[in-house]
């Protein structure tokens, strides 16, 4: 598909869109939910006794202003002020805390709270936060929340108390509250603390998965745009069900009609569905295929595969799988039908983050139909996602051997080699990959995908002017491809910081295809950066309703929840991240 969303290697259990983070420019904030997925490193495990700064077995009040006079009780100064006495109690509590005697530490901090004058907000907040730290060691999460809440009421921008409360909310499975607290922490720390960023990422993913699971289960099926459907089928060359009606399937009268849709010769639900495909009347295809399968017609296998394909296109994987399973098990069926069903089931498994099952299906397809170029083309894309670049290149090479005119495979091979060179910071390999793109677009000047992938690579290399030219070529070849306008809009932001032009192009994408979830997602991301959080949430919700898989929906919910958390933090604490 031309100008498709960028391909990203498998990282853990997610498929983050690294290109979006690179294109918008650094640093993207929490509301984007992307850049720290690209740049994060695995944090070391916390030891059992750690405070918010990660200091092992440390005193929980480190970093706060000490009270004057030190430990009054130990000095025998009975005429000290109430605040001095409170500080002394706190210091005794700190000693108990360091010794691992948390119950005694709690008693001392409680004494400090009772002794401290009520107008001493900063000191009181420290005492509550210290007592929360002791409760944390005893895993008394509700008490942690209560004391941190007191500390934050007294000192609203108290990072340590906010972060400790966030962790306690996580333990209590209060994800929404956890997210709000850790969002406030991230903003206060300028998105520089690995620990808080990782917690935000974790909670966003959990919330996204929970919401997506419920939403996806009850969603109304939605047919994608005709342009998307045609682009999807164009990625197959050995797909029988996407081929035009054959001569023998048309009536003699219809063969003589030029410029008119052919009527099928026999009463077949499958052939009728094929006719609807030619008419781009996609909504009727599933019901016609069902008629064919229920009547046990001669095209039952084809009808099952075509119905499964459209179930996948509308995002109903649960309905697609039984049809695909049945086609795969029909040993008497055309081998290309079975291989195509394996490719589609393998791609479905990859969307569901089941790479082992996905790989098995692609390998089985290669075994039963080793001369099928589609198998190697789509398995190559899988290998890119799994960050197995050498194997991906080998598959693309085999696809090209079988179909030398496969422009898509040649362009995607260049992209795989480029990603390998880019990730490995190898200038010579990057140069070779860029030359490969030049060769591809020279050899296949009508392949929009070649220009689109080359443009992404050029953007990485900050060759913005040339990248813009490549996107213009894409638009010239495929003026109705909405995603190209989105990429070109993002380029304007990174290249010229031209927000108006960028938004104009993305709005054009939505005008061309109002079902382009990528356009709504990108628009939402930009609105977060502009500080227009309500509009961003609206854009993300539109993208959610258009999501084609549960995994994609979970990602979008994460973005939406991050934006919503920022609105709540702004209301409660007056905190807002920097904007464009």
TrEMBL record:
<keyword id="KW-0007">Acetylation</keyword>
<feature type="repeat" description="TPR">
    <location>
        <begin position="517"/>
        <end position="550"/>
    </location>
</feature>
<keyword id="KW-0677">Repeat</keyword>
<protein>
    <recommendedName>
        <fullName>Mitochondrial import receptor subunit TOM70</fullName>
    </recommendedName>
</protein>
<keyword id="KW-0488">Methylation</keyword>
<keyword id="KW-0597">Phosphoprotein</keyword>
<dbReference type="GO" id="GO:0008320">
    <property type="term" value="F:protein transmembrane transporter activity"/>
</dbReference>
<keyword id="KW-0832">Ubl conjugation</keyword>
<dbReference type="GO" id="GO:0045039">
    <property type="term" value="P:protein insertion into mitochondrial inner membrane"/>
</dbReference>
<dbReference type="GO" id="GO:0005741">
    <property type="term" value="C:mitochondrial outer membrane"/>
</dbReference>
<keyword id="KW-1000">Mitochondrion outer membrane</keyword>
<keyword id="KW-1133">Transmembrane helix</keyword>
<keyword id="KW-0812">Transmembrane</keyword>
<feature type="repeat" description="TPR">
    <location>
        <begin position="339"/>
        <end position="372"/>
    </location>
</feature>
<keyword id="KW-0802">TPR repeat</keyword>
<comment type="similarity">
    <text>Belongs to the Tom70 family.</text>
</comment>
<feature type="repeat" description="TPR">
    <location>
        <begin position="448"/>
        <end position="481"/>
    </location>
</feature>
<dbReference type="Pfam" id="PF13181">
    <property type="entry name" value="TPR_8"/>
</dbReference>
<feature type="transmembrane region" description="Helical">
    <location>
        <begin position="20"/>
        <end position="39"/>
    </location>
</feature>
<dbReference type="GO" id="GO:0030943">
    <property type="term" value="F:mitochondrion targeting sequence binding"/>
</dbReference>
<dbReference type="Pfam" id="PF00515">
    <property type="entry name" value="TPR_1"/>
</dbReference>
<keyword id="KW-0472">Membrane</keyword>
<dbReference type="InterPro" id="IPR019734">
    <property type="entry name" value="TPR_rpt"/>
</dbReference>
<keyword id="KW-0675">Receptor</keyword>
<feature type="repeat" description="TPR">
    <location>
        <begin position="125"/>
        <end position="158"/>
    </location>
</feature>
<feature type="region of interest" description="Disordered">
    <location>
        <begin position="45"/>
        <end position="79"/>
    </location>
</feature>
<dbReference type="InterPro" id="IPR011990">
    <property type="entry name" value="TPR-like_helical_dom_sf"/>
</dbReference>
<feature type="repeat" description="TPR">
    <location>
        <begin position="86"/>
        <end position="119"/>
    </location>
</feature>
<dbReference type="GO" id="GO:0030150">
    <property type="term" value="P:protein import into mitochondrial matrix"/>
</dbReference>
<keyword id="KW-0496">Mitochondrion</keyword>
<feature type="repeat" description="TPR">
    <location>
        <begin position="373"/>
        <end position="406"/>
    </location>
</feature>
<keyword id="KW-1017">Isopeptide bond</keyword>
